[in-house]
User: Which sequence fits this backbone?
């Protein structure tokens, strides 16, 4: 079956590059992926799959039925949204939408989902169980997976596969990681409420800017002294605003930030820990505060059995020297984790790095992809799906 998957992928490889370039040239922001979704649905319908549109607002799902009824589903999830970044590449197929760019590789992810569907639909012997392809919107704002789950895309799903491009891995290779792949991402909104006064008489006021500075500094210091260094926590305030004039002490300061962590136990205690520090400082200086802590997505925790399946598929398809065991997780976030609340799964990294030019990081306006990686990703996903159902048959 592997040789058939490789041959089918080679046959459609030029078409897959066309698909990727079309999607790249026509990026759409999170929750606005209507043209992308329509294009995806058209390709899937042409491949003979059962397609359902407007799932999770602008998402698409498609199913390739298995030979055995009642065997359940293996899901393959890819995402479709772009970023509010102005593209600065010189590509002929660069974004035609001002200020919008596929700078995170979701154009490649969508193409991988389509290519895998096309290949599996043409196999001479159908797979025993159903494969459900999930084309998700709004990953960049960490909402799309939740929308899709709410509409039942994980019903009857026994396992789920995911993929994300990685520019530091050369094209032709893939990376797998056991355990934590990405971090939990949470959001803080904090307002320090002091008391206004004249800038020349600070002792008559309660300086919200100065108190906010104490909060920021104390939180960063407390991380290094009170949090387990083997279980990292990153807290970054990205916005701060307050004050009305250069000689008036501010009575209110608003801060928003992000919190990243890898271990569920650490993540669970962070809201109380952060608020405790804020409260103690505000109490000390006679201020009050308003605190909001919003959990966005948990950490992606790759299932060991599914990760092993992907690793085995990649080793057989590509060769062992082209499969990298990733030693470190990323503190970036991925709402793929929300699917893992409903079924075991694993996300792998697809190398898209060039060997002869600069590889810009994800979310960079000059981010580019070595398109030879597309065929590698399709073969890995398709063969992993085939191995999964072969494995299920022998249970």
Assistant:
């Amino acid at each position: 079956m592997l040789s058939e998957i490789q041959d089918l992928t080679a046959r459609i490889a030029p078409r897959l590059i066309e698909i990727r370039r079309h999607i790249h040239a026509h990026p759409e922001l999170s929750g606005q992926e209507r043209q992308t979704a329509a294009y995806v649905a058209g390709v899937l319908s042409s491949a003979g799959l059962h397609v359902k549109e407007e799932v999770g607002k602008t998402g698409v799902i498609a199913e390739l039925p298995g030979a055995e009824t009642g065997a359940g589903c293996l899901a393959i999830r890819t995402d479709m949204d772009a970023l509010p970044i102005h593209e600065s590449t010189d590509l002929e197929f660069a974004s035609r939408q001002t200020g919008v760019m596929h700078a995170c590789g979701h154009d490649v992810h969508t193409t991988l989902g389509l290519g895998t569907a096309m290949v599996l639909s043409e196999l001479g012997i159908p797979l025993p169980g159903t494969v459900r392809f999930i084309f998700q919107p709004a990953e960049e704002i960490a909402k799309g997976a939740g929308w899709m789950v709410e509409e039942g895309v994980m019903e009857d799903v026994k396992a789920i596969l995911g993929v994300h491009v990685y520019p530091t891995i050369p094209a032709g290779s893939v990376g797998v990681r056991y355990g934590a792949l990405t971090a939990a991402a949470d959001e803080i909104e904090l307002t320090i409420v002091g008391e206004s006064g004249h800038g020349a008489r600070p002792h008559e006021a309660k300086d919200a800017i100065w108190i906010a500075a104490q909060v920021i500094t104390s939180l960063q210091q407390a991380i290094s002294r009170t949090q387990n260094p083997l279980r990292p926590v990153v807290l970054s305030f990205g916005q701060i605003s307050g004050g009305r004039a250069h000689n008036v002490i501010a009575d209110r300061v608003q801060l928003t930030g992000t919190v990243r962590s890898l271990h569920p136990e650490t993540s669970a205690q962070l809201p109380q820990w952060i608020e405790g520090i804020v409260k103690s400082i505000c109490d000390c200086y006679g201020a009050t505060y308003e605190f909001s802590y919003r959990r966005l997505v948990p950490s992606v925790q790759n299932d060991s059995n599914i990760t092993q399946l992907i690793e085995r598929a990649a080793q057989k398809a590509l060769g062992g020297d082209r499969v990298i065991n990733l030693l470190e997780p990323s503190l970036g976030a991925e709402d793929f984790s929300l699917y893992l609340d409903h079924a075991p799964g694993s996300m792998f990294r697809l190398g898209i790095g060039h060997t002869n030019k600069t590889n810009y990081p994800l979310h960079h306006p000059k981010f580019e992809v070595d398109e030879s990686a597309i065929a590698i990703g399709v073969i890995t996903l398709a063969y992993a799906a085939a191995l999964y159902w072969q494995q299920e048959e022998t249970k």
